[in-house]
UniProtKB/TrEMBL annotation:
Protein name in the entry: Uncharacterized protein
Origin superkingdom: Eukaryota
Length: 157
C-alpha cells in the first residue's frame, strides 16, 4: 500500500511529515535505482547552496536579532518590564559545536568530507572485485536467460 498524506485543519496536504517523506523516499529509491544513481553528489550540491544563501554570520545575526526583537516586543507592546538578557550564544559557542560535531559525528565541510573519504578509502580499501563479478555474469548469462525463459513459460501456463 502506498503512503498517503491527509490534510488537517491547520496543516495542508502539501506540508508533509518526516514519516511520510521517509516512506516515499524509501519507496522511490527502492523502485527506481537508476534515479538514485543520478542523485549522487546532490548532497554536496545542496551543502554548497545552503551555505551560499545562508552563511553562518548571516544566520547568527538573524538569530540574535530575533532574540532581541522578542524582548523588545514583550517590553514595548506587552508591558513586561524584565531585565534585558543578551543572546546566550556567541560565534565561539557555535564554532565549538561545529568542531565537536566534526570530532564525534563527521565532517562539516566539503573539504573535510573529501579528506575523510580519502582516509577511509586508504584505511579500508573496497572489498569487491568488479572485474570478477562481471566475468561471473558473462559466464552465467545463459543460465540466467534459461531460468528466465522457464519462469516465463510457467507463468504463461
Amino acid at each position: 500500500m502506498l503512503p498517503k498524506m491527509k490534510s488537517e485543519e491547520e496543516k495542508p496536504v502539501h506540508m508533509t511529515t518526516a514519516k511520510y517523506a521517509t516512506s516515499i523516499g524509501v519507496l522511490i529509491e527502492g523502485s527506481l535505482p537508476r534515479l538514485q544513481a543520478k542523485m549522487v553528489g546532490s548532497d554536496d550540491y545542496m551543502h554548497k547552496c545552503l551555505w551560499a544563501v545562508n552563511p553562518l554570520d548571516k544566520y547568527f545575526k538573524e538569530c540574535k536579532d530575533s532574540w532581541d526583537d522578542y524582548q523588545k516586543d514583550w517590553r514595548d507592546n506587552q508591558g513586561y518590564d524584565l531585565p534585558w538578557i543578551e543572546y546566550p550564544y556567541t560565534h565561539e559557542h557555535v564554532q565549538g559545536w561545529f568542531e565537536e560535531y566534526g570530532k564525534t559525528v563527521g565532517p562539516t565541510t566539503l573539504e573535510a568530507k573529501a579528506e575523510w573519504i580519502r582516509q577511509m578509502t586508504e584505511a579500508n580499501p573496497p572489498e569487491w572485485d568488479g572485474t570478477s563479478s562481471m566475468e561471473w555474469w558473462k559466464g552465467n548469462d545463459e543460465r540466467c536467460q534459461e531460468m528466465k525463459s522457464k519462469v516465463k513459460r510457467k507463468m504463461e501456463g
